[in-house]
Amino acid sequence: MSIRVEGTLHYAGAGMPNTKPIWGRIATLGALGFMALASYGFVRPAVESMFLGSYGSAYLPYVWIAVGGAVLLVVAVYNHFATTTHPAILFGAATVVSALSLVALLVARHAGVRGADFVLYIWKDVYIVVLVEVFWTYANMIVPVKTARWLYGGFLLCGTVGSVAAELTVGVIAERWGTMTALTMVLPLFVVLAVVCGFAARAFPIEEVPEKREAKPGVLSAFSVLRSSRYVMILLALVAVVQVAITLVDYQFNHEVAEAFSDQDRRTQVIGQIYATINIAAFALQLGCGLILRYVGVPITLLALPVILGATVLVGMVSPRFLTTAIAKVVSKAFDYSLFRAAKEILYIPLTTDEKTRGKAVVDIFGYRVAKAGASLLILVVLGAGTYGVGPAILVCAVIWFALTRILVQKHVKLTVDMSDAPR
Length: 424
Fold this sequence. Notes:
Helices cover 82% and strands 0% of the residues. It is globular, with a radius of gyration of 21 Å. By secondary structure, it is mainly alpha-helical. It has helices at 23-55, 60-82, 87-110, 116-142, 145-177, 179-184, 186-203, 219-228, 230-260, 264-287, 289-296, 298-318, 322-337, 339-348, 353-382, 390-421. Residues 1-20 and 207-217 have low confidence and may be disordered. It has a single domain (23-204, 219-418), classed as Growth Hormone, Chain: A (Up-down Bundle), CATH 1.20.1250. The chain starts with 22 loop residues before the first helix and ends with a helix.
């Protein structure tokens, strides 16, 4: 099947659009997505296993709250550059900072510094969300809605292939040479990722003049987008509720895996296998993403997801054990990495550049991780009634998720119609 890519590059609220072919940018985005998610495939199982070995699942709510605080600072830094910097340069800079931070934390851990595993977990959650959001900001600037329905599934596939390859590899390395060795394997990948970003910045320069602002973009200016855009505000609420639900599922899984597997290296292997299963399931969904979004439609797809997750959680509540908890985690993450991600990103395309950059940073960097902090506070309250209280809390989130989605898709349909009716 031949897919025609339409549209031009609109960047940073600039003047005339860049009309050069975008296939080179598309291929570069695919490579960046592959390597970014492959890096996380090495990092996530190793860091989570090390954290559970040092602190246990009881400390997860506290580290998630700490992540929420750390990401507030990251949003301030990110928004300082987001509207005026080439996405490839921003991507490369974030990669270099991530690599240097990891080296410093590994040295601290080797030296026996207390709290190193705690900070490593914070680093894990922050670095990947920045890389992923820079990636999607770039994509949303160059891909129109009609093409995105087909192309975004392909981008997700690139990331999934990278994740699965790394997650299957990390278990083998951890079993033979240890978890620390498995984690250090990400450093060469960071180097290659930074090199590709440098190539992209030189090969695909942004010709437009960056938009000038009277005030430096930061957290307060980013939140001003929420005040002026109800659409972005609802997006933030939706992302927050979805991430609270997924975080609650994640907590259940981490509690069960810590109970079932006491050996750190074996636990790393099992976590890697679960995430590989998640990505294989996501891969299958991504293969059909174009067809689903084209023929089922973005609105119905988004509305179906909370219903499916709620049904899965109900099954787990009837039969609570490691297997059912693992299935709920696979379902929640697989949808998050495939249909929800692709459909949600399409919701940004009709928006202004300001909403796609500063507004998106608040929604998808701040919102994602601060929602984890909110979920952590909820977990601390729910656990007062025992772990069985987590399931009902997820179901409540699913209901709110469905209600917010209904409001949002109605607004998206109207915006898309207005765009198609606008004079060209």
